[in-house]
Amino acid sequence: MFDALRVRFNQGFRSIKDVKAARPPEGFRGLPIIESRDCPNGCFRCGDVCPTGAISFNPLAIDLNKCILCPECVRVCCNGTIKFSNSIELAATEPSSLIISAQRKTPVVKVNEGLRNYFKRSFKLRSVSAGGCNGCELELNALSNVNFDIGRFGIDFVASPRHADGLVLTGPITKGMAYALRDTYEAMPSPRALIAVGSCALSGGLFAKSTAVDRSFLDTIRPVLSIAGCPPHPLTVINGLLKLLGHDL
After folding, report:
1. How many domains does the chain have?
2. Fewer CB under 10 Å: which end of the chain, C or N?
3. Any idea what the CATH number is for the domain that residue 116 is in?
């Protein structure tokens, strides 16, 4: 036991000290950048290859609610108008803020005063995978490891919705999970919040047109925070939550 304690002591502090300043490696595909330059007349290559229909024109824009951060648009762009940065700023309180163009460069997360007053010091979350591929779920699991250690900010995942303040939704919401999702949300005490994580949760992603999907839950319950990505990086999730709760980073 003493050998194990000695090893742990020698390892020192392993968590990321400044999660706001931290960035993934350069190869990470994060926030897209749209340059202010004219595309050739009649060029719709990026829109044609986009698997989720996330790209619109006049002006050129990428809807991060739908975007899965694949490189296809960059691959076919003939003049470098579209590129990807390694920025993890992919969260927003308004879905419209996730539509990126040459004029709107970065999504915006506004402090939710109600949530800050109730949950700034302690925010308990219940995760529901509503037909997800397990990509977003793996990144959410990583939030509790020694690197990201989201618990130090008072944010934890709990097993029961009775103990939760917020529901974290992943997946496109399959018909088989639609009732379970609504039942879990209604089992949570008020006040409660819905947080959508990943392009599938935000828009249905690649499965938006599938007949196996039932997204009627979102017709009545609006997420307080939308976190884009396929899947989002843990730093995206942490920074989005901390900004929503008004933490001074």
Report:
1. 1
2. N
3. 3.40.50.12280
Q: Write out the H or E segment, with its range, that includes residue 123.
A: strand 123-129
User: Cα–Cα distances in Å, from 88 out to 17, 45, 92, 156?
Assistant: 16, 26, 12, 21
| pTM over 0.90, yes/no | yes
Tell me the residue range of the domain where 184 lies: 1-249
Asked if residue 30 lies in contact with residue 88, where contact means CB atoms within 8 angstroms, the answer is yes
Q: What token pair was written down for 74? A: 């960059």
Provide the sign of the torsion angle of the four alpha carbons 201, 128, 194, 33, taken in this order.
negative
**Burial of residue 238 (number of CB atoms within 10 Å: 0-12, 13-18, 19+):** buried
Edge-to-edge strand list for the sheet holding 55-56: 55-56, 61-63, 99-101
Who contacts 17 (Cβ-Cβ below 8 Å, separation ≥6)?
none
Cβ neighbour number for residue 7 with a 10 Å cutoff: 9
